[in-house]
Specification:
The complex is a heterodimer. Chain A is mainly β. Chain A has no helices and eleven strands. Chain A is globular. The model of chain A has no long low-confidence stretch (mean pLDDT 97). Chain B is an all-beta fold. Helix content of chain B is 0%, strand content 53%. Chain B contains no helices and eleven strands. In chain B, a hairpin with a 4-residue loop joins strand 7 and strand 8. The mean pLDDT of chain B is 97. The chains are: A mainly beta, B mainly beta. Chains A and B meet through strand 5 and strand 10 of A and strand 5 and strand 10 of B.
Chain lengths: 107, 118
């Protein structure tokens, strides 16, 4: 099973600032990595797939990068609605696995 | 409207069984692999199982293999998850999700809560 490690566990950021989230996989997943956003009590929402492709309707301030074992999600200028938990997921190998999440909170 | 809607959750005693349903609408359900993903209270997401577009193939997480059965009825646009011999560690919100390409999830239901407690 591929293990995904997200860092940091919590990121405190002021509105308007840039946030950089990391996801590391225990073995290569090529570019088969997705990012999701989840707010309390809500279902996850797909943000990024294929490491860097934005899903339909996702604002351009969200960008993804990386391949192999190191991936990054960047939010260029945090808006109030962006404070949430972000999870990465690999779909290169079975079983599909998720990282533990990074909570982005208001500083 | 493109959506998924789960039902069937509730409070269940350990050892009992439960069947969750997920009604799909607004898209070609019969052409799409479908998944169940769960989230224990305060924890991260855990993929549970997938069924192929025609129901002929299923893959399960090791943690549920032998107790969970995923299936679908393409004539009714419904996905199912049968859970047997429920354990306390099965307590979670269960989401159904539409799979894309090599199986990331581009559409999620609102989730249904399963609580295993005596």
């Amino acid at each position: 099973e591929i293990v995904l490690t997200q860092s940091p566990a919590t990121l405190s950021v002021s509105p308007g600032e840039r946030a950089t989230l990391s996801c590391r996989t225990s073995q290569s997943v090529n570019s088969n990595l997705a990012w999701y956003q989840q707010t309390p009590g809500q279902a996850p929402r797909l943000l990024i797939y294929g490491s860097s492709s934005r899903a339909t309707g996702v604002p351009a301030r969200f960008s993804g990068s990386g391949s192999g074992t190191e991936f990054t999600l960047t939010i260029s200028s945090l808006q109030s609605e962006d404070f949430a938990v972000y999870s990465c997921q690999q779909y290169n190998n079975w079983p599909l696995t998720f990282g533990g999440g990074t909570k982005v909170e208001i500083k | 409207q493109v959506q998924l809607a789960e039902s069937g959750g509730g409070v269940v005693q350990p050892g009992r069984s439960l069947r969750l349903s997920c009604a799909a609408s607004g898209f070609a359900f019969r052409n799409t692999a479908m998944h169940w993903v769960r989230q224990a209270p305060g924890k991260g997401l855990e993929w549970v199982a997938v069924v192929s577009y025609d129901g002929s193939d299923q893959i399960y997480a090791d943690s549920v293999k032998g107790r969970f059965t995923i299936s679908r009825d393409n004539s009714k646009n419904v996905l199912y998850l049968e859970i047997n011999n429920l354990k306390s560690e099965d307590t979670a919100v269960y989401y159904c999700a539409r799979g894309r390409q090599r199986d990331y999830f581009d559409l999620w239901g609102q989730g249904t809560l399963v609580t295993v407690s005596s």
